[in-house]
Amino acid sequence: MAGCSAMDYMQISAVKASSFLSVFILVAILVTSHSTAQQYDNTYYVTPNVSMCTNITEPCQEFRTYFNNISYFQSKTQFIFLPGVHLFDLGSVLSVQDIMDIRLVGSENLTQRSVAENVKEYGFNPYGEDDNITYFQSSTIILCTNLSGLLFSNITNLTLAYLTLLNCGQYSSVTSQNASIHISSVYNLYMESVSVQNSTGYGLLGVNVLGQSHIMRSSYVGNNQIVKDILQRVNISNCRNETGTLYNRDRPFYSSNYTGGNIYLHYDNDHNVNTTISHRLNISFILVALGMDAFFNISYDKTPNIFGTGLSLVLDQSYNVTISINSLVAYRNQGLHGANLCISVSSSTSEVTLTNIFSSYATSLVSGALYSLTSPSTASPEYIIKDSTFLCNYGAYSDAGGSSLAFIITSPQSCTVENCTFAQDDGVSSFLIYINSTTGSTTSNNKIISINDCSFFSMIKYTIANIYLDTIYNNFDIWIQVSNCYIQGNIQLTGYPNTNEYFTMYDSTFLQSTIFAYDTIISIEGNSTFIESGINTLNSKVYLNGNNTFTNNNAVSGSGGAISLVGSSLNFTGYSKFINNTASYGGAIYVDSSSSISFTSPTNASFINNTAFLTGGAIYVVTSVTSNTCFYILNIADIEDIHLYFEGNYAGDAGSVLYGGNIDTCQVDPNFIVPSSLVFDNITRIGHHDNSTSLISSDSPCIYSCNTSTSPVCLTSGSVSIYPGQTLQLSFVVTLGQRNGTVPTVIVVYSNAVNQVIGVLRTLKQCSSYVIPYELMNGTLNLKIQYNPNGYILNLLILPCPTLFIQNNVSASCICDPLLQKNNLVCNISDVMVLNKGNIWIGLTSKGVPAFQDPCPFDYCAKDKTINVLDLDSQCNYSRGGVLCGQCQGNLSMTFGTSQCASCSNYYLLLILVFMIMGVVLVGVLLLFSFTVTNGALNGIVMYANFIRISDTIFFPNRSGYSYFLSTIIAWINLDLGIEVCFYDGMTSYAKTWLQFVFPAYVLSLVGGVIFAGQYSSWISKLNAVPVLSTLVLLSYSKILRTIITIFSPVSLDTLNSSSDFLVWQYDGNVNYLEGEHFLLFIFGLLVTIFFIIPYPTILLMTSWLQARSRWRCLQWVNKLKPFIDCYQAPFKDRYRFWPGVLLFIRLPLYLVFILSDSTAVKMLSIIFSVLLYLIIMVGLSVYKNGSVLLLETIFAANILILSATVLASNDNISVQLCEAIKSFDISYSLFLMAMIVTYPRLKWIIHTLLRKKVSSVNDETQPFANRDIEIISDFPEYREPLLDD
User: Angle at CA 951, nearest 5°, toward 946 and 955?
Assistant: First the structure.
């Protein structure tokens, strides 16, 4: 039966009912009537109509003739009823007493009838296909038109056969009840093919049916159904029909004013009974259906004064009686106790055997299908129930309402239930065992209830359990054995304290079946399997012996997915597996502090893939605070034969393998001093598990810091400082002493300021940060984080608002300064951060005043960055810091070539030698190649390099790879170093500015020294040093101009808390403008400006005017500068000799734009405008003498325009890669032109010189002795100072 589905339940009912029907037909055909060989002295025919007696020689009369004259009923008399309807209108009981050998028999012509027909006769619709259960009735019908009945008393050998009684029933003083057939003290009753229907009271009422009696092949339907006496409707739950759909199980029958039913058999000592013979009653092939009792008119006090309406059997005698009930169909009976079948034993020892019982749709307060009561202590019956089916039965009483079987035990009894099926029952349980006894022995095995080879299928959802043991009081031992059964549904076992109620299961399968055990002893033997099931215990003992498996059991909202122990013990012997079980605590097993687990050799227990949503993935143990005994018990001598294996278990919080138990410190065996940790590790093997949760953990948590690298120490107190409104976050972990496992716990935050709990939070299973609530106020606040009785005392210091924040008067939290808010800065006091949406510098001045500047100078600040106000230097690029990020952080130093800060040493001062050599090389190259301003091409080259240099951060935003190379070349042309390099340790922006003047001054001094030496050496004088000097002055002008503008550039810082602004130097905001060291630098820059920056371009611009007035005494110095000025004016036409000055003045406003503006677009547009204006005028006027120079300068100007346009385009989301490629190509092309211009004359001279030597060598070989005049022709130009010849 194991594995039968809900559809199969209904198929069982159909098969059982049809099998009984087939037996009825077979017996009716093959079996002759009982005792035909019996000799009767008198034979009377009973006819429904005297006209049918024509051919009958024996006396033949209507029934009323006989029952009106009792003298016909004598010993050895038989009444043969002819087919037809016999009216029985006596209006009382026909009493036949004190005789022997009497027989009433009708026609053996049987007709088939269904229960549904009876239902329709009552005026109701049939229930469904189940009402198609059929039975046979004789064509001989005794119809009671006035309530009448038959009484047989003190008779030996009574035969009733082939009779149908309809609408009968009358009260008898002998039985004190209403019934159609009364039988009292009858020996050897033989009743066959008798159908009793629609009786008032009972269909058959028997008191002491003795001797060897038989009731067979009979039907009792609808007895005590009195429609006119309607009291109320009986409402119960639904059940499934054959198709699996639900239909209403509400009975369309009503309770009666009469006590009654179908069959009631009673045995007592009130009549003279022959106790020297054996008494046996065989009941076989019987249908009892649609019986009704006075259900709701009787109060229920657990005293069985009213019994079932199907078949009731009361054994209240002192002699032995054997009852055999075989092939009984009990259907839709209603009664107080055991509606379909009720058995009560109150004295002696009796044996009751029930075989092939089919009981369905019974309605009762206690056990609709079968009710058994034993009392008092002298009763000790033996029950055997075999090969039976109990389907959709209902027991309404909430305390002891067994729906199919109910054993009410007040004395020891034995019961065997074999090969039975229980399905879709509705009530407390399918199988109820109710014990209430004060007698018996607790020292011997009194009686056993055995349930073998049975199947318990799913029950209605309101049912507590399929098997339900309820012990009110018990004074004897009782064994309940379940063997080879399939159980779908719960089992509840309630024993009596300090007594022994044993529940043993052998080789059974449990599906969706939880065993609830209270004060009982459970033993699971053999090969049992629990699927989606489990065991919950209270003060009980559980023994797992054999090979048992618990899988897919679920206690999500409770503890112990497979087994829960409360005040109980669990013993392992043999092989046990716990697989895929689930619970909140203890996925497989839950052990409370008063419970224990013992292991007996040999034990192999596997815990695989069990899950606890909270703690104890496999096992959860509530650690005892009063005892140090281990939760597990074993004999140390057996340790090698005990094995626990864990794999794949998981706990949501802690202890995937084990939670609790103190395995490292508990005492395993008081007789052996062995470390408990060694014992546990020796019997345990742990396989793969999820590492996100600790494998072994326990209670007694302690807060540990996340940052400690040493052995963890439990935190007891601490202090922390926060700003008003800031989130208080603490990082800690709750770590347990047991194997250093972690476990979440609930902590309570208590404030001494308000003297109350201000927050509750739950920790995580790993080291984490937690938000701690607190009351916002100034000063020091004491918080107690209470996770155990002692807790963690935290001294909380509320600080004033940090820089750039002010305290809100309403919330008392720190908020962003209003001035910062106006500039789109977003403040967050939680992490003390300010979101800088742009290129704004915020911080403190050198005097500690909060201030901000928009924009931040140069590339010193990071754009769109979140700034920690406690680390204002975090807003700076290149490891810079301070006001306006103008200085280096820590021990770092400024570097040449970039804005970077680096760790430098004084060994870098050796670079002075390198710079000196580079200066000499520069002068030498210019002298060697004679590439000076006298060559008009240099003007365009220098202007191009100057424009590219001031736009260096725009054209080369990422100085890496090839762009780094191009940027460095441009820097060299501008006399800048161009590469990132230290100079000395501690170099500042201030010192770096001073050093910008050193290299130009050095190279100019070198040329000056050459000129001076030329006065004493004709060879040196031929080096044309004056054009070189002019060239170097032109190259230096741009560099010095940029430096002077930097020196003069102030920044007015907007202060947050003051109406006055704060003036600092732009290049280094830590230097106050025109104060201290900057004042000295400013004076020097002012002198350079007065004597060089302004005069130099002015003289070149106004040369003609000055030379025309050089006779003036105040302007005679102009004549001394004429060689120097002529170098610049040589490439230009006479009327445009002022053009060099124009080129210099163009630079001045452009440089100012780049210093003062932070907009890339403005800078590029200013370049485009300046170059276009310059290009239009230059081309329009054709200022150069040589058209090739004009073309070359036009190319450089166009190159600058392309670069500027490319930058603007890149801001319009054109491909960045494409723009970079254009810029790289453009600058590379310009540098190539520069290289060709510089090297072409010298390369041309070298080539011509080599060719001349080759020709001279050939002539010498052909005419070795000829005297020839050789004319050396050279295209190498004379390097003379232009305009110096006379």
Answer: 120
| Amino acid identity at 701 | P
pLDDT digits (tens, 9 = 90+) for 602-634: 999 999 999 999 889 999 998 776 677 788 888
Three-class DSSP category at 1032 = helix
Pairing of strands 865-868, 833-836: antiparallel
For residues 413 and 380, give the distance between their C-alpha atoms in angstroms, rounded to a whole number. 5
Cα–Cα distance measured from residue 746 to residue 763, given in angstroms and rounded to the nearest whole number: 6
pTM of the model: 0.59
List the structure tokens of 693. 């949760």
Q: How many CA atoms lie within 13 A of 884 on its CB side?
A: 27
Instruction: Label residue 769 left, alpha or beta by phi (over 0 means left) and psi (-120 to 50 means alpha).
Output: beta
Measured over the CA atoms of residue 1010, residue 1016, residue 1020 and residue 1022, the dihedral's sign is positive
Considering only CA atoms, which of 739, 1200, 1211 is closest in space to residue 950? 1200
**3 state SS of 676:** helix
- The bridge status of strand 246-247 relative to strand 311-315 is unpaired
From residue 844, give the alpha-carbon distance in Å to each of 183, 813, 1062. Answer: 117, 22, 11
Q: In degrees, to the nearest 5, what angle opens at C-alpha 657 toward C-alphas 654 and 661?
A: 80
Closest listed residue to residue 292, CA positions, set 347, 336, 242, 255? 255
- Token pair 């922006």 is found at 989
Place of tokens 């409104």: 725
Q: What is the pLDDT of residues 63-88, one digit of tens each?
A: 889 988 888 999 999 999 999 999 99
Q: Residues 168, 144: contact at Cβ < 8 Å?
A: yes
Question: How far is residue 603's CA from residue 597's CA, in Å, rounded to a whole number?
Answer: 12
Spatial distance between the Cα atoms of 973 and 945, rounded to a whole number of angstroms: 7
What percent of the chain is helix, strand and coil (3-state, nearest 5)? 25, 35, 40
Q: How far apart are CA 862 and CA 1249, in angstroms?
A: 58
Could you report the per-residue pLDDT of 1177-1196, keeping only the tens digit for each? 888 888 888 877 788 788 77
For 361-399, b/e burial (b = at least 16 CB within 10 A) is bbbbbbbbbbbbbbbeeebbbbbbbbbbbbbbbbbbbee
| Contact by Cβ (8 Å): 1199, 944 | yes
Q: What Rg do the C-alpha atoms of the chain give, in angstroms?
A: 59
Q: Which residues contact 866 (CB under 8 A, 6 or more apart)?
A: 833, 834, 835, 836
* Whole-angstrom distance, CA of residue 295 vs CA of residue 520: 35
Assign residue 661 a region: left if phi > 0, alpha if psi is -120 to 50, beta otherwise?
A: left
Report how far apart the first and last C-alpha atoms of the chain are (Å, whole number).
135
